[in-house]
Structures are given as C-alpha cells and as structure tokens.
Amino acid sequence: MSDSTLDGGCRCGAIRYRVRGTPCSSSICFCRSCRLSSGAPSVAWLTVSVEDFGWLTGQAKHHRSSPAVTRTFCAECGTPLSYQHDDSPATIDLTTATLDRPEDVRPTRETWLSDKLNWAASDECLEHWPDGVG
Q1: What pLDDT digit, counting tens, does each position of 57-80 carry?
Q2: In the chain, domain spans
Q3: pLDDT at position 131, please?
C-alpha cells in the first residue's frame, strides 16, 4: 500500500469514489455478515480514514446491516461499496474489488476465520485472526 490516489466505483458506473493518502489496512473477511451482504465466501476490505475518502459521483444507498454497522451499495446495480462501524467513526472500509486497480492493494490479513466456510480458500502467507482484528 502506498501514499497515492485510489479511485473506484460500482459496476454500472453510477457511483464513483476517491481515496487520497495511505490506507490504514487491507483485509479479507470471512464473517457471516459480509458473506450474506456480498453473496461471496469472503470480502476484501480496504480501510481508510474518512478524511481521505470522498464520493465523487452518484449517491450510495445506506443499509443498517446490524445495530452498529452501516453498509452502502449502488441502488442501480447492487454493487456493495462500503462498511462503517459506529465504534470507528474515523474510518471507512471499502470493498477492495471496487477499486479501479484492486491489484495495487494486496491484503495483509484474514479476519473472522472462525466463520470461514470449510471449502473457502485461505492464504497461509497472511496474518490470521480467528475473529475480528483486536
């Protein structure tokens, strides 16, 4: 991860966003909530400071997926875009795959391995957390 500008958006192009600065972290999450929200066995997340993040075009639809979590997605194409936890108002997690160049942001850890589906692949080279990051 480098100190640069990262642009991304939804599949249909209705929503675009930009990140400036150095990301805080990059993870792959296997929790049930992320699986259900994405329809995938895991979700790659890029965590950034809200001060370094901004929506450029479009308006993401907000959804309270649990009492302390707000997720956003494109109402036109359904692309999951972000995750924010009430306990961490200074950061926002963005779905790494929605970046224009997701290959530039390699994950460094896997979280919620306690929820991982037994057939889902895991990268033994990454740092592993049975639950969320402490």
Answers
A1: 999 999 999 999 999 999 999 999
A2: 4-99
A3: 86
The residue-averaged pLDDT of 95-102 equals 97
Looking at the structure, give the CATH architecture of the domain made up of residues 4-99. Beta Complex (2.170)
Binning the chain into helix, strand and coil, the percentages to the nearest 5 are 15, 45, 45
Please give the pLDDT value at position 1.
Answer: 47
Q: What is the DSSP letter of 12?
A: S
SS3 29: strand
